[in-house]
Amino acid sequence: MESLQMKGDYDSMSKAELKQYFRKHRGDRAAFQAYLDRLNQRSLRVIASPSDPNFDQKVQAAIRERLESRTKVSLELKDKA
């Protein structure tokens, strides 16, 4: 029954929150499906084309941005715990 109550909340959860919820409630198939759906919705943005003269810089900047956002989410989750 909990998964039915939580279903409306899955959309309001961040990907990290949904992952954390699913890890605590492994039997909640709806949470698992919501998490898989979320993973499949990721946009695949084009960072740079290989012929771009600034290709290396753009890729490195995208990697740094991704790492910084993951660190920020981890810190936010620690603060909530």
Describe the structure.
This protein has 81 residues and is mostly helical. It has two domains: 1-42, no CATH class; 46-81, no CATH class. 70% of the residues lie in helices and 0% in strands. It is built from four helices and no strands. It has helices at residues 2-10, 15-24, 29-40, 55-80. The longest helix has 26 residues, at 55-80. The chain is elongated, with a radius of gyration of 17 Å. The two termini are 24 Å apart. Mean pLDDT is 81; it is low at 1-5. InterPro entries: DUF6887 (IPR054053). It holds the Pfam family DUF6887.
Give a quick precis of the structure:
The protein has 81 residues and is an all-alpha fold. The chain has helices at residues 2-10, 15-24, 29-40, 55-80.
Taking pLDDT < 50 over at least 5 consecutive residues as the criterion, the unreliable ranges are 1-5
Note the overall shape: elongated
Helix percent reads over 70%
Average pLDDT number: 81
Largest sheet: none
Structural class: mainly alpha
Strand content: under 5%
InterPro entries: DUF6887
Task: Give short descriptive properties of this protein.
DUF6887; 0% strand; single chain; 81 residues; mainly alpha; 2 domains
Give the SSE map:
Blueprint: H1 2-10, H2 15-24, H3 29-40, H4 55-80
Helix pairs in contact: 1-3, 2-3
